[in-house]
Write a structure and sequence with these properties.
The complex is a heterodimer of chains A (1055) and B (951). Chain A contains 36 helices and 29 strands. The longest helix of chain A is centred in the N-terminal third of the chain and has 47 residues, at 271-317. Chain A is elongated and about 135 Å long. Mean pLDDT of chain A is 87; it is low at 813-839. Chain B is built from 31 helices and 28 strands. A six-stranded parallel sheet of chain B has the order 9-18-17-10-16-11. In chain B, β23 (810-816) and β24 form a beta hairpin. The chains are: A alpha/beta (1055), B alpha/beta (951). Chains A and B meet through α2, α4, α5, α6 and α7 of A and α2, β5, α5, α10 and α11 of B. The complex binds iron/sulfur cluster. Iron/sulfur cluster binds at residues 23, 75, 79, 822-823 of chain A.
């Protein structure tokens, strides 16, 4: 029955949106398992933790289902193309899978890399016990590193750099700029070798004298007879003299000469002129290129300094980011044989299954590639990957979509397959997708980026849908035109908010996904929607500050950190907390100071979780259910924060303000950026922000590599199109390529946005401006042309609609969509809003405890009772300068050796042997030995150790040394050991007992007061011994004596 | 030196005399069975005398519980108890031999490894690591030492050394690590040699020696209770005392085959549960919080018939503990996690951490943190320092943005006096920890002194939980300091005070402070302690793969494969231990509920434990279908509020209404009007109640401070002789000098680094201003007034017959010598230059700011009559745009502005401060909590919210 897994081809699947990538992956996994591949040889990776969890769930569930239900077995057989698979086989494989749950390797790429890195920590130079850095910590480390960098930098240097990057402006805020710089560019920095930053060849410029001469010649050169040309030369010379080289090159005669033109103002540019201009032009070019090169290198210098500070901090905190893990592994790849990796991972990888392959970064591929290459070579091993270049929207993070194309060259014998049938979207939605992307190249809105569009379109095949039954609707409409002083984007968004509110009202219970481009738009939309009474939340949730109850708690925390914060004081004093906290006058400084100190004390002692819980109890009566639920979430967050709580309440406040927490009661309308929508689907998708430029944001740095998986060869700071022609050809090409990639990514974003929809699509764009000449090069423009034609668009007009606007009323009941789409990646699958029951069905109560506790009794030892109920910290922990503790231990151990003094005393050798366990200091032992013998010579000491001191016969006496005991005392167990216990018996009945405790305190024999003090100190302990003996031997306390033996002065005192 | 065995494949013990095994069954809790056994065997006549017995148990809690049960037995039966010596099995070996040398404590061991590493040659180190820690980074070296020490301990306890791995590895296919382990073996030799030189042993060496010499003996009876997994060294030692040893096995005799001679598990026999669990015993939920809820639901289902001490909650995954404690709290029930709180949360730990930060460089932020430590606060008060020094500190930070502190406080002494005192006191407190490097131990007294000074202000009461915590934390810190002092001088590193403190913190960071007993609480127990627990109701969370059973595949040193080959702890053994433990719980006839989650607290996906899925193939399939039907997973659910009940249907948190205050409005700043026009309520908060936020987080100058700086310099310029100059260079030089002065005056020598850069930015704007100003003077403009404002009783605006005074200072008034034209000018330093029209009016009609129009009245107060123009001198970031922006309002428009001002005054007088404007105006961030701005999301309308203060 077991087939060779190698019957399976090495396969790359390009799976369009909604066609079931995860399903394909689980098929492959199941197929391998059923064919008998050892489970721990299969490695399946994906990008999110959620997806990783789902893959395994699907695999196990489908197998179990197939084993139990005949029709599911048929389904499975069909999907796996294994008609012979039967129930017994399923059961057997499932059983193996369950027994080897711990050997199943399905996870995120990051988690796999972390595992490898852990196994090679030392070789990778990672500190022992390193952890992945969490976001807040990383932010802190970066801030500190930036601060340090600024600190060490001369202000001039930093300033120069800022000017280089800030286009010469003297902006007020610097930290944000530097922070962004370090954030955005650090990735480029880590990926690019130092040489790449110096790739731009510099040119030779003229010496000052030569330049002056050249300008002299230029100033004198004979010009055609045209005033305008004379003026132009004047300007050119002036620019040159002012060293404004960019300006010099980008206008006037130089521009013409550079462009290869032969005339200016229709007059010929004479050879003479050219000859006069040329040296200056060459110099100008050298200068401009030099400054670009300088800026590029200055950027790297700054990043290098940032890195130094940042990496040092990482090492100090023993943390590292996922990106760093990947990079280090990439750098080390090759240093260790695959065998070694396999050995330490304890995994003989034979089958590689990669999901969402388009998001793989070159750095990640660098780590994976050796494995993939080996697997492809081995006939019994298999390679499988699934991805969609059309959904590659992580270019900015290092994902290089073309890898999926490049690997077909790198890995021989890969088979290719394509999936274009959607299991998600309605025919209407699919129709829109086909209309938009089917004829992309002809679309007028593409403008000059036809090449990029063509490349993108080449990857697109017309989509079909398996969900022909789904009703749906699509509409493209325009917003009102912005008035004076208004921004069109704001107007469009506000209009969209009204539309969304209507849609929500018309299709209750349907999931609505609102996808935008910028984070700021998310906030604006949520604001507008909530004002219209629509509970909208951001994907991933809003910060808890969306509840006034939470805001109040934060104000209280601010008062804890800043007693002088009168705004927060007022907030607290006017709130329900005023009374319980006894703080009702916000202007009472003294009361505020006291309150603040008390709050800080509580936070430090009880922790944030407990303290905020207590406040929550005070606030609950004033809360509505949502406030309370947000407060409870705040308490959860506070508990999570407690282990790393600082002395500053501000730190927690900051965390609360930044962290998003999903609010379970507001899941109806979700607003998010397109990136956040990845992998999700919604009944209705609204796209209200389609008017962004296709070229996207200009980058600060542009990088070039020979191929998508090759290392970076060139880095250059962004150069505007005007100046670009003077760059070397390969740099120009690099800039072109960069632009192409940005356009392609914009198209991917549009594709991802449109394909999130199950039933309906609502597209909202700006109307044409009155002066519109061309269709704007935006996604909105593309949609306009594709759906409505190239003409201008009136305000508030529906320019395209298709399908059934009333679909929501007729379609299958909400919730039904979720189950049907098991093939598609799951998400907010048309779930109806989720309201968990807010109370426990039955509130947990406990029976009354019995009068006497039965378990968990407190444990007390008599020595803890020393000194009574108040402890002097100094006495407890100060060093007394001697070796008192060890001496005490050794002397005790020696006294324990003494039975009755009348019998043979322990030999010195034996005593030394005992001492050796405690100290290697022979000298000290000698000293203590002398002390010990001296003590034994003292009369009082001798007396307590002698049988003769007891008025009994040998037979009536029993002596115990180091006698353990345990008795119950109230709700505690009192247990310990008694140094020396002598009990006398009348027959078998205990008659008296004598408790002796040796003390090695150094007190002079004649200092009565000191001895009294010590006796008082030890009294509680001795009383406890006496009680224990009373209980054990059932003796009345008056028959028990308890005595302290101060061995140094040789004083024995009854207690 | 002790010897390590050469590697043998899976050595079985088979000594001359074997240990007695007693099968006690498992239909009752193991501890009950153990107590019965002890009583039966040792009770004689009138007493239960176990004084000659050593009972070894797997964990500390089982030992404590056993003693409780014995005491209870003694009480119930009225017999005196002589308790046995109860110890955890890990400590048993030391009772069986007498060590010939003192033991090296953990720090000495780590330092011995470090010594070995530091001395090792590159041929050794290259095999081990790509990058050794920096010489300075002692903590990293110690961590490395700790790592190797751990490896050494594990292997040594199996009677192996690093060479053993080389020998064993040679039999594994694809093993390529011979060179690495050979290098490690060399290091191990060096490590042992270091200890040898010091006359010390680590415990493993002592045990090995005792075993080798056949020295183990004991004169008591040893009873092993439930110690089902012993390492090789333990086994060999027990073999030497086999005659006196009995192993109690909690399992029916019929399972004897599944246990070996010492009553340990045979791993192969325990890869599944002996019999499958019932469906209703298993519950799988999503998150950690939901696991906690499931526990409370399980308790609810008991219907109040059980008391707290009859229930135990198992927490194999400690990360669930806080969720559980919170859920109990919400249900107003009490739970106790005996392991207790991490020491790192205690006051003394935080004190030392803050002190170390401070010692590393006297940064303002460190002082601000340290001063907020509650005990430090009290200490400061004990020094007789009174006043709200925290607020002083905040204000100082806001005014001067200091980075470092050097004792030179900026500003006048009456403002900073208390800061001087606080700073000096803190300096004195920490001075003993400053200064040059010293041997580690030399810092110990100073560290203790710091703890005593701050926390020992009065006697501590151990019965107060908070003070008890301080006490235990200090004692544990003290124990670490003892270790520091015990380190041999030849190993002791020289460090500075901050590093010494950090080393202490490192050593105690993983310690916990045990929670005090609370009889009315439900006990939360770790997995290892659970097997021997005897509560009638057990609710176990965290039943997830990787937790129960734990498994380890990948490893830096010993991946599973080599573990198996060596016969040391591997996944098989781990699983066996947990399968047995779970079997024991399930068999004991108690109520058992097992809860698993699908996501870790960090959000990683989790699988239910494979043990939960045990059973025949059909059962397994059905259970998988039930548990993996992903329907619910991933849903966000509200956390149950327990007994917390929301008291309202609609939120009762209203924005506080303006208070009734009778306060006569006499005068207003001209800049105030803008705030009222933007939002009457926030105006009220800011100007009538004079509320303000106060924080100390600014990273750089905000718009207001940036503006003030410029105003100060430009004011000095206007008042100087250079004001008339037409020489740009001269003006520039003056501004430069003035700027340097002002900067030094306000921000001192050590401000935040960003300020130096911002200052340079401003300097650029001023440089351009100099050119502009020279040109202006050239064109006949003369500065007539600078920074002047008349008294409010002169500058008045009549409002319905009741005049209102206007306050404010005009940046400057220029007059043209040639034309006599006059213009009132205001400097603007916001990044983008906006015209007066843009800042003052919305859509060319509605006034949103009245500053410039009202300046007319101030000017009149200065005695300036006749027409005056209005304008800005903009100094924006684009320096090319530095220059004049004139306002072009007609007289009518200006009159309209005045009328707007009158209306504002009327409204304020009438107490119209409600409602707040929505969306909130840009300046209102400090009031966003009061005004509940966040409720609608965090979007603030308007632009960057940049604001500058007009002086
Ligand atoms: S939903 Fe479609 S893909 Fe999934 S099992 Fe059924 S038929 Fe197969």
């Amino acid at each position: 029955m077991t087939r060779q897994p190698h019957a399976l081809p090495d396969l790359v699947i390009r799976a369009s949106a909604g066609t079931g990538k995860t399903f394909q992956l689980s098929n492959r996994f199941l197929r391998l398992a059923l064919d008998g591949a050892p489970l721990d040889t299969i490695l399946a990776t994906t990008f999110t933790r959620k997806a990783a969890g789902e893959i395994l769930d699907r695999v196990l569930f489908r197998l179990a289902e197939a084993a139990l239900e005949p029709d599911k077995l048929d389904d499975l057989a069909r999907h796996l193309e294994r008609p012979d698979v039967d129930r017994t086989r399923c059961l057997a494989v499932l059983q193996t899978m369950v027994r080897q749950l711990h050997r199943l390797r399905v996870g995120t790429l990051d988690s796999v890399f972390v595992q490898i890195a852990r196994s090679f920590s030392l070789e990778l130079g990672l500190p022992p016990g390193w952890q992945i850095c969490d976001e807040p910590t990383d932010r802190r480390l970066r801030t500190e590193a930036i601060r340090e960098m600024l600190e060490n930098e001369s202000a001039d240097d930093t300033l120069r750099l800022m000017h280089l990057l800030g286009k010469g402006e003297a902006a007020r805020s610097v930290t944000k700029q530097v922070f962004d710089l370090a954030g955005d560019l650090y990735q480029v920095y880590t990926e690019s070798p130092p040489e790449a930053w110096e790739a731009l060849p510099r040119r030779k410029s003229l010496a000052p004298k030569e330049l002056a001469e050249a300008l002299g010649v230029l100033g004198e050169v004979e010009l055609p007879n045209d005033n305008r040309i004379a003026k132009a030369r004047e300007k050119d010379v002036a620019h040159a003299e002012a060293e404004q080289w960019e300006t010099f090159l980008s206008g006037g005669v130089p521009k013409q000469i550079c462009a290869g033109a032969t005339t200016y103002y229709k007059k010929e540019i004479t050879a003479q002129m050219t000859a006069a201009y040329e040296p200056v032009i060459a110099h100008a070019k050298a200068q401009v290129i030099g400054s670009i090169a300088n800026q590029t290198q200055a950027t790297r210098d700054m990043l290098a300094r940032f890195e130094k500070a940042y990496v040092r901090r990482q090492a100090m905190h023993r943390v590292i980011r996922f990106d760093d893990v990947t990079r280090r592994l990439g750098e080390a790849s090759g240093a260790h044989s695959i065998e070694q990796v396999v050995y330490r991972l304890d995994a003989h990888l034979a089958h590689l299954l990669l999901d969402e392959f388009q998001d793989t970064s070159p750095a990640q591929w660098r780590v994976l590639r050796p494995f993939a290459e080996r697997i492809v070579e081995e006939p019994d091993n298999t390679f499988f990957c699934v991805g969609d270049v059309k959904q590659a929207i992580y270019g900015w993070r290092g994902g290089v979509a073309e890898i999926i194309e490049a690997i077909t060259d790198q890995l021989k014998s890969l088979e290719k397959a394509e999936l274009n049938e959607s299991f998600r979207s309605s025919p209407v939605v699919i129709d829109v997708v086909n209309r938009v992307f089917g004829r992309l190249v002809d679309n007028d809105a593409i403008g000059r980026d036809r090449e990029a569009a063509a490349a993108w379109a080449a990857r697109f095949r017309p989509h079909s849908t398996a969900r022909k039954d789904l009703s749906g609707y699509a509409k493209l409409e325009s917003a009102p035109l912005a008035g004076e002083g208004e921004k069109q984007n704001d107007v469009t968004l506000d209009f969209a908010a009204r539309r969304i509110a209507e849609l929500h009202a018309a299709a209750p219970g349907r999931s609505i996904g609102v996808l935008v481009r910028r984070n700021a738009s998310v906030a604006r939309l949520i604001y507008q929607l909530r004002r219209q009474g629509v509970l909208a939340s951001e994907e991933g949730g809003n910060p808890l500050t969306d509840s006034p109850a939470v805001e109040l708690v934060l104000s209280l925390l601010r008062v804890a950190d800043h007693p002088g914060d009168t705004a927060s004081r007022f907030h607290v004093a006017q709130s329900p907390l005023a009374k319980p906290l006894a703080f009702s006058r916000f202007d009472d400084d003294e009361a505020a100071r006291r309150l603040s100190a008390e709050l800080r004390r509580r936070l430090a002692i009880d922790g944030y979780g407990v303290t905020i819980h207590d406040w929550t109890r005070l606030l609950a009566p004033h809360c509505d259910p949502r406030d309370l639920s947000r407060l409870v979430q705040l308490v959860e967050m506070a508990h999570g924060y407690d282990p790393r709580a600082t002395l500053r309440a501000d730190d927690f406040v900051e965390l609360v303000e930044q962290q998003r927490v999903e609010d379970p009661s507001s899941a109806e309308v979700r607003v998010m950026t397109i990136h956040q929508a990845k992998g999700l689907q919604f009944d209705v998708v609204v796209l209200p922000e389609l008017d962004y430029g296709l070229v996207g944001q200009l980058p600060q740095l542009v990088v070039g590599r020979a191929g998508p998986t090759e290392p970076v060869e060139r880095v250059c700071r962004y150069v505007g199109e005007k100046v670009r022609p003077i760059l070397p050809r390969d740099f120009i090409a690099m800039f072109e390529k960069d632009r192409r990639q940005r356009v392609e990514e914009s198209l991917c974003l549009l594709y991802v946005s449109l394909t999130r929809a199950v039933h309906a699509l609502h597209l909202i764009i700006a109307p044409s401006k009155s002066n519109e000449r061309n269709v704007p090069a935006t996604p909105g423009g593309i949609l306009r042309v594709a759906l409505a034609g190239p003409g201008p668009i009136e305000p508030e007009a529906v320019v395209f609609d298709e399908g059934d606007p009333g679909w929501a009323g007729k379609a299958v009941a909400p919730g039904a969509t979720a189950g049907l789409s098991s093939g598609a990646s799951a998400g907010a699958e048309g779930d109806s809003p989720i309201f968990a029951s807010q109370t426990l069905e039955q509130s947990p109560v406990l029976a009354k405890p019995s009068d006497r506790a039965r378990r968990g009794l407190d444990r007390r030892s008599p020595s803890q009772l020393e000194g009574g109920p108040r402890v002097d910290l100094a006495a407890k922990i100060r060093f007394d300068g001697s070796d008192a503790r060890r001496r005490g231990t050794v002397l005790h151990a020696w006294f324990e050796q003494i039975g009755w003094l009348e019998d043979a005393p322990p030999a010195d050798d034996q005593l030394r042997e005992i001492a050796r366990q405690h100290t290697g200091d022979a000298e000290a032992v000698d000293r203590w030995m002398a002390d010990f013998h001296a003590a034994l010579r003292r009369a009082e000491t001798r007396a307590v150790l002698s049988r003769s001191a007891y008025d009994r016969s040998e037979a009536q006496l029993r002596l115990w040394r180091e006698r353990p005991f345990a008795i119950r005392q109230d709700d505690a167990i009192l247990s310990g050991t008694i140094d020396r216990l002598v009990v006398s018996f009348d027959g078998k009945t205990p008659a008296t007992a004598d408790v002796l405790d040796f003390k090695t305190d150094r007190v002079p024999a004649d200092d009565r007061a000191a001895i009294d003090a010590r006796v008082a100190f030890y009294r509680p302990q001795m009383e406890a011994y006496a009680r224990a003996v009373a209980t054990m031997f059932r003796l009345p306390t008056e028959r028990i004596s308890a005595r302290l033996v101060f061995v140094e002065p040789g004083v024995v005192r009854a207690v | 030196m002790p010897s390590f065995s050469t590697w043998k494949p899976c050595a079985t013990n088979g000594g001359p005399m074997s240990i007695e095994r007693v099968f006690l069954g498992w239909d009752r809790p193991a501890l009950s069975l153990a107590v019965d056994y002890l009583v039966e065997r040792f009770a004689a006549g009138e007493s239960l005398d176990l004084s000659k017995v050593i009972v070894a148990v797997p964990g500390g809690r089982a030992g404590r519980r056993l003693l409780e049960r014995l005491v209870e037995w003694a009480e119930t039966n009225g017999q005196p108890l002589f308790p046995p010596r109860i110890i955890t099995v890990g400590r048993l070996p030391e009772l069986l031999y007498t060590a010939k040398r003192p033991f090296a404590d953990p720090l000495t061991q780590q330092l011995a490894w470090v010594e070995a590493l530091r001395r090792a040659g590159s041929e050794t180190l290259d095999q081990l690591t790509a990058q050794l820690p920096d010489d300075e980074d002692l903590a990293a070296w110690l961590a490395l030492g700790e790592m190797l020490g751990r490896l050494h301990r594990e292997l040594a306890s199996e009677k192996m050394n690093f060479q053993t791995v080389v020998d064993c590895g040679s039999r594994i296919r694809g093993f390529q690590e011979q060179a690495r382990w050979t290098a490690l073996a060399r290091l191990q030799g060096d490590y042992l040699a270091v200890l040898d030189r010091l006359g010390l042993w680590d415990v493993q060496s002592a045990r090995l020696y005792a075993v080798d010499q056949g020295e183990c003996r004991v004169d008591q009876t040893i009873v092993l209770a439930g110690t089902v997994d012993l390492n090789r060294l333990q086994r060999m030692m027990l073999d030497q005392v086999a005659e006196q040893t009995t192993a109690l096995v909690f399992a029916p005799e019929s399972m004897a085959e599944r246990f070996d001679d010492l009553g340990c598990l045979r791993p192969e026999a325990w890869q599944e549960l002996p019999s499958p669990l019932d469906d209703e015993q298993i519950e799988v939920v999503d998150t950690a919080a939901q696991q906690a809820e499931a526990v409370l639901r399980a308790i609810a289902s008991l219907g109040g018939r059980r008391a707290a001490d009859e229930i135990t909650v198992g927490v194999p995954d400690e990360r669930i503990v806080p969720h559980l404690l919170q859920q109990f709290r919400q249900c107003e029930l009490s739970a106790r996690h005996g392991v207790g709180e991490p020491l790192s949360r205690s006051g003394p730990y935080r004190l030392l951490a803050a002190a170390a930060d401070y010692l590393e460089g006297p940064r303002f932020a460190s002082l601000a943190a340290l001063a907020r430590h509650p005990a430090v606060g009290q200490w400061i008060e004990r020094q007789g320092i009174v006043g709200d020094w925290l607020t002083e500190l905040d204000c100082y930070r806001a005014d001067h943005l200091p980075h470092r502190i050097d004792g030179n406080w900026l500003g006048t002494i009456d403002k900073t006096g208390v800061l001087h005192t606080v700073h000096e006191a803190v300096e004195q407190l920490l001075r003993p920890l400053g200064g040059a490097r010293q041997p580690l131990a030399a810092w110990s007294p100073a560290i203790v002194d710091l703890l005593v000074a701050v926390h020992g202000g009065g006697p501590l009461r151990p019965d107060d939980p908070a003070e008890r915590e301080i006490l235990s934390a200090c004692e544990k810190i003290r124990a670490v300091l003892d270790e520091h002092r015990a380190v041999d001088a030849s190993l002791a590193p020289e460090v500075n005070g901050a590093d010494a403190v950090r080393l202490v913190l490192r050593a105690v960071a993983s310690e916990t402070i045990a929670a005090p007993a609370e009889p009315g609480s439900v006990e939360l127990l770790g997995w290892l302690e659970l097997a021997l627990d005897d509560a009638p109701v057990l609710i176990v969370t965290g039943m997830n793969e990787g937790i129960v059973p734990a498994s380890l595949d990948a490893d830096l040193f010993l991946p599973n494969q080599i573990r198996r080959a060596l016969g040391i702890e591997d996944n098989l053994r781990r699983c066996a231990r947990d399968a047995y433990a779970l079997g024991l719980l399930a068999a004991s006839g108690r109520r058992l509920k097992l809860i698993a989650g699908r996501r870790s607290p960090e959000g990683d996906p989790l699988l239910p434990s494979r043990l939960l899925l045990s059973g025949d193939v059909e059962t397994t399939a059905r259970r998988v279908r039930r548990l993996f039907d992903g329907g619910d997973a991933g849903r966000v659910r509200a956390i149950l509020p327990g007994r917390l009940v929301a008291g309202q249907t609609d939120s009762a948190f209203d924005v506080p209404r303006p208070l009734e205050r009778d306060e006569r409005l006499e005068s207003m700043r001209v800049t105030e009007f803008r705030d009222y026009l933007a939002c009457p309520y926030r105006y009220y908060l800011r100007h009538r109640l004079r509320l303000a936020g106060l924080a100390d987080r600014a990273e750089e100058l905000d718009g207001a401070a940036f503006g003030s700086l410029a105003h100060e310099v430009l004011g000095q310029f206007g008042a100087s002789a250079v004001a008339e100059s037409t020489d740009a260079a001269e003006i520039g030089a003056f501004l430069d000098a003035a700027f340097a002065r002002v900067l030094g005056h306000i921000y001192g020598s050590w401000p935040l680094a960003s300020i130096r850069i911002q200052a340079e930015q401003l300097r650029l704007r001023l440089a351009q201003f100099a050119r502009w100003q020279a040109d202006r003077a050239e064109r006949g403009w003369r500065i007539e007034h600078v920074e002047e404002g008349p008294s409010p009783d002169v500058a008045i605006l009549d409002v319905d017959g009741e005049p209102i005074g206007l306050r404010g200072r005009i940046d400057r008034i220029d007059v043209n010598g040639a034309t006599g034209e006059r213009i009132i000018l205001d400097y603007k330093t916001s990044d983008t230059a906006k015209t007066p029209e843009q800042t003052h009016r919305e859509k060319r009609s509605r006034w949103i700011d009245l500053q410039l129009p009202l300046y007319r009245h101030l000017a009149r107060g200065l005695g300036i009559e006749g027409p005056v123009a209005l304008g800005y001198i903009a100094l924006p970031k684009d320096v090319a745009k530095v220059g004049l922006l004139r306002a072009e309002w007609s007289a009518e428009e200006l009159e309209n502005a005045d009328e707007t001002a009158r209306q504002v005054v009327r409204d304020i007088r009438a107490g119209k401060f409600w409602p707040p404007t929505d969306p909130p105006p840009p300046f209102a961030e400090e009031f966003s909590a009061i005004c509940q701005d966040g409720q609608f999301g965090s979007w603030l309308g308007g632009d960057d919210g940049e604001e500058e203060e007009a002086p």
